[in-house]
Specification:
By secondary structure, the chain is of the alpha/beta class. The chain has one domain: 3-Layer(aba) Sandwich (UDP-N-acetylmuramoyl-L-alanine:D-glutamate ligase), CATH 3.40.1190.20. Helix content is 34%, strand content 27%. The chain is built from nine helices and 13 strands. It has helices spanning 40-50, 65-76, 140-153, 167-172, 180-187, 192-200, 240-253, 258-273, 285-294; strands at residues 3-7, 11-17, 32-38, 54-62, 79-87, 94-99, 105-110, 130-135, 157-161, 175-179, 206-210, 216-220, 223-227. The strands form two sheets. It has a nine-stranded mixed β-sheet with strand order 5-4-1-8-9-10-11-12-13, with helices on both faces. Strands 3-2-6-7 form a four-stranded mixed β-sheet. The chain is globular and about 50 Å long.
């Protein structure tokens, strides 16, 4: 089984279930709570591990109690954290997340602004077991470094572009999956299909945009194609995008083509949306395989 090396942020999330997202500065009561590890790259690594792949994470943390909790949970999930570096005197990333009755979320996050960006401590080459690299935009220097190594090794370098990425980082990725807002910021187009079409002429990599319950749009032979989302009753969308990207990277590492990788990733994300608690709801490989059989393939 190939490994997926994830690079980017790891957090500790406090997830509160509320009826509606607050609009006034007053006291609000939650009817459920989950304290669970989070962060784009870390969630993707856990998704890979639960889906039967070997997962590793390169991330930056403080030397504090929060880091202990984050790393202990990742270890229990089977994620290799040898490339998780802790910096004395700094605080580890944390988030407060409110999830409403429709599964939509509001996130307030903190990352220590003094966290070093220099990726010089990361390896100079990838091990032969690495079948794909997945990076987020929270540590662009680290992601860019490992994407260069992935390019040199001839393996997929998958960018989770939930925020507008640096142009150099965008160019280094072999596969880019935008969030709608990030694509809009890059192209200036409010329509995701038009935004992708605008990039088609100059793209030297595979591009897509995830559009929630409307599915995924992607470039195929220079044209915009689409894959529908699986219809589910959403409870919590937190970590659904991370599940999608982790599953997509694993599928590519296993040799699937992009269309089949999208279907596999969309199944993982759909299952996640039916469960409260962010990362806690990430599915197993058996669950995804059963889900796909039930949905006809």
């Amino acid at each position: 089984m190939p490994a997926v090396l994830c690079v980017g942020i790891a957090t500790l999330d406090h997830v509160f279930a509320v009826g509606t997202l607050p609009t006034k500065p007053e006291k609000h009561r939650a009817h459920d709570i989950a304290v669970v590890g989070g962060g784009i790259a870390a969630n993707a690594a856990v998704a890979v591990a639960r889906l039967g792949g070997r997962a590793a994470l390169a991330t930056r943390l403080g030397a504090d109690g929060t880091a202990e909790i984050i790393l202990d949970e990742l270890a229990r999930e089977g994620v290799d954290c040898a490339l998780a570096r802790r910096f004395p005197g700094l605080r580890s990333p944390s988030s407060a997340v409110l999830v409403d009755a429709r599964g939509e979320r509001l996130v307030v996050s903190y990352s220590d602004p003094e966290t070093p960006a220099d990726p010089a401590w990361l390896p100079a080459r990838l091990g032969s077991e690495v079948g794909a690299v997945l990076g987020d935009t929270r540590w662009p220097e680290g992601t860019a470094h490992l994407f260069r190594l992935a390019r040199a090794a001839g393996i997929p370098a998958v960018l989770d572009a939930d925020r507008r990425p640096d142009p150099d980082l965008l160019a280094l990725a072999t596969h880019v999956a935008f969030a709608e807002q990030a694509l809009r910021e890059v192209t200036g187009s409010p329509d995701p299909a038009a935004g992708l079409a605008a990039l088609a002429g100059s793209a030297r990599n595979w591009l897509a945009v995830t559009v929630g319950d409307r599915g995924v749009l992607f470039l195929e032979r220079g044209r915009v194609a689409g894959a529908p989302a699986f219809a589910v009753d959403a409870v919590d969308t937190l970590a659904a995008g991370d599940a999608w990207h982790g599953a997509f990277a694993l599928a590519l590492a296993e040799g699937l083509d992009e269309r089949d990788a999208i279907r596999f990733a969309s199944a993982a994300a759909a299952i996640k949306c039916t469960r409260f608690g962010g990362r806690a709801g990430l599915p197993s490989r058996a669950e995804v395989d059963a889900f796909l059989r039930e949905r006809g393939g």
